[in-house]
Amino acid sequence: xxxxxxxxxxxxxxxxxxxxxxxxxxxxxxxxxxxxxxxxxxxxxxxxxxxxxxxxxxxxxxxxxxxxxxxxxxxxxxxxxxxxxxxxxxxxxxxxxxxxxxxxxxxxxxxxxxxxxxxxxxxxxxxxxxxxxxxxxxxxxxxxxxxxxxxxxxxxxxxxxxxxxxxxxxxxxxxxxxxxxxxxxxxxxxxxxxxxxxxxxxxxxxxxxxxxxxxxxxxxxxxxxxxxxxxxxxxxxxxxxxxxxxxxxxxxxxxxxxxxxxxxxx
Amino acid sequence: xxxxxxxxxxxxxxxxxxxxxxxxxxxxxxxxxxxxxxxxxxxxxxxxxxxxxxxxxxxxxxxxxxxxxxxxxxxxxxxxxxxxxxxxxxxxxxxxxxxxxxxxxxxxxxxxxxxxxxxxxxxxxxxxxxxxxxxxxxxxxxxxxxxxxxxxxxxxxxxxxxxxxxxxxxxxxxxxxxxxxxxxxxxxxxxxxxxxxxxxxxxxxxxxxxxxxxxxxxxxxxxxxxxxxxxxxxxxxxxxxxxxxxxxxxxxxxxxxxxxxxxxxx
Lengths: 266, 266
Known about the structure:
The structure is a homodimer. Chain A is α/β, with parallel strands linked by helices. Chain A has nine helices and eleven strands. Chain A has two domains: 4-113, Tetrapyrrole methylase, N-terminal domain (Cobalt-precorrin-4 Transmethylase, domain 1); 118-250, Tetrapyrrole methylase, C-terminal domain (Methyltransferase, Cobalt-precorrin-4 Transmethylase, Domain 2, 2-Layer Sandwich), CATH 3.30.950.10. The first copy, chain A, has helices spanning 20-28, 65-77, 96-105, 118-125, 173-182, 212-218, 234-240, 248-251, 255-265, and strands at 4-9, 31-34, 50-53, 81-86, 110-113, 138-143, 162-167, 190-195, 203-208, 225-229, 246-247. In chain A, strands 6-7-10-8-9-11 form a six-stranded mixed beta sheet, with helices on both faces. Chain A is elongated, with a radius of gyration of 20 Å. Strand 6 (138-143) of chain A pairs antiparallel with strand 6 (138-143) of chain B.
């Protein structure tokens, strides 16, 4: 008897932004393996399933990718219906492929329930659609996270019709800012940092390519954050800011420094 | 008394792939303005809301964007709770910005409920994650639809670590194929056409940059379809094909031509 694994996208961090099918999969599962990153805790309450934390954060026990793969195989081979819950969408930097290939190698059936990616929903909550007629007809998404020994970012050369989204941009801000300038992005092109997007704790900092890293440091932007680069950022200020979010300048811990910064640029 | 408008992403075409919040918005709405494109008909059954079709397809009455904007304003000003239902995600080529700016100009409150974009979920259903460690760390999404007088596509120069997704690629296949070759994409790089992705009618055709347009014509690929370009397409054949979809070569209406094609390339 073999079980199976359903990969489920939890959405961007609000429990109501999981799909109907994803919620049903959680309710029917025997066991749920979840990450901390981006998964709303409310999604895991009141379920009959056994919960197994497999995240790589917060100083808790850290499992390697190989250990996670082996765990999924073992649980399914015990005949269990397993849900592998991931933040956002499993196919957008979610490593669903690695885990699913491990299952396929053992002949274990799997399904993938897509989720709302934070890459698209966090900008929308900040009043920034990634495309807009006459402004942008395309977008590019890349990770700004770098592992040891890696160099560079997959940032395309500047095209005024393409919006760029970078995930995990906080620690590498000076490096990707330099990469943008090298690839022809104008210094005055707007940049928005969206922290905890699509949740009640959403914060937004609007800056420019030329000032992004310094502004993010001054406003003490922390993860989870993504950054949106392009002319669509300007739509937020032209009427599309609808979420009652906190401007990062309003809630920075050192208002004096930030006031000085704002005055200097006014 | 003023009403409000909720923009809701319906997801990629399967009724269970709407979000929990989106489904609730449909149930609570007074009136729902919907497109045909990508919205599962089951989502509109059994609701108390008045349903208004505002799509631009299928030979039915066609409303201009300005007429849709004016309709949303008028309904909200009558004090109604309006849902504007869109296929996929409202922020990915969904024109949410234009409609929301029209509401903002009249002081009408709006909310945006994101959806699962077909741009990410249709590839996953075809066994193709857009990113995969060691293969692709980024993706670019562009429309392949062109309006009268428009030239070119926002396709970035070739980067082996970037997957490219083109929406609405069927009618312009020869043009974007030429654009890919001009921008350095290798002729043998794999290309997947995914038709009606993430629905029971899903069909997939795997081809190459060099053969894409001819293969799509031979297999009679029709809209709605998107195309995925990049090395991640190869993962489908290496164990990630999990959906019981129909290979486009199996179900083409002219098997003889397709058999000849397959033999010629074998």
